[in-house]
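Our consortium's second objective concerns turning raw sequence data into structural hypotheses that experimental partners can test. To show how far this objective has progressed, the report includes one record in full. It was chosen at random from the queue rather than selected for favorable results. The single chain below, 295 residues long, was entered without modification.
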Amino acid sequence: MENKKIKIDIDYRNMPIYTEYNADKINYPLLLSVPHSGTYFPPEFLQNVKFDEKNLRRNEDIFVDELVKGAVDGGITAMKMEVSRTFIDLNRDRLELDPQMFYNYPENKEILFDKHCRVGLGVVHRINYKRENIYDGLLDYAEVESRLKYVYDVYHNRLNQLIAKCVKKFGFCLLLDCHSMPSKICTIIDSRKGIDICLGNLFSQSCPQEMSDLLATQFWNKNYTVEFNCPYSGAFITFNYCQPRRNMYTLQLEINRGLYADEENLQKSEDFYEVAADVSEAILNYAINLKQMKK
């Protein structure tokens, strides 16, 4: 990375941060979070990166919000991030920043330089899907702090409110964090049949196994292959909102993109609507079962 200093002045006043659904009346002890399907890029950001929108969108979970739309239409409460994860990644800890990305990173500031940062995919992405640097210089730390304050914190603060509301009404809440996964990694891990659905529960730590099995059964009944914690066991959202002592549980849902989309061209495949119907029906049935489980 060059020593060029990049200063991005972003206007957050009219930026679409998130969309929420069925938030006034929570009908089930199940909430959906869709943090990686946002397609909005601040124009000031695009003017200061090396690639166009299509290139940068290859990091997103394409169409996941539409895959779960039927469940939302059925009354399940949900939040969808509108801003691209390339700009700010909600499924990372606030501290997952790479100091080497900045020309003025504060000395002695606490960091969480974990595996995501090391590969360039911390809370602010350094690389695109081809592992090429997104920026041709060093960022202003103050500007990234603004991203966290005006985008990241806004989403998570509202998600916390909805979870608290759900727990108050039902006595517990299961947060289903909805994602997609590249088809390539699914076939690499299991070349015999591939993986259609991955359910990450932090190796049975984020929720009772019974809750995980309930959702897996819905997909098994529709002839989808389901694996637990492979290739993903859960990331920041799954870990952060898992608080069993407060009756807050989490589960990460990963859907193989190859089932429903042309990953290269970011387009829906002919199977999209069938898969979307299956996914939404599975989630809605899951919500109904959860509600009955605690009666």
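The partners drew two points from this record. The longest strand covers residues 173-181. Residues 5-293 form a domain with the Aminopeptidase fold (CATH 3.40.630.40). Both points have been shared with the crystallography group to help prioritize constructs.
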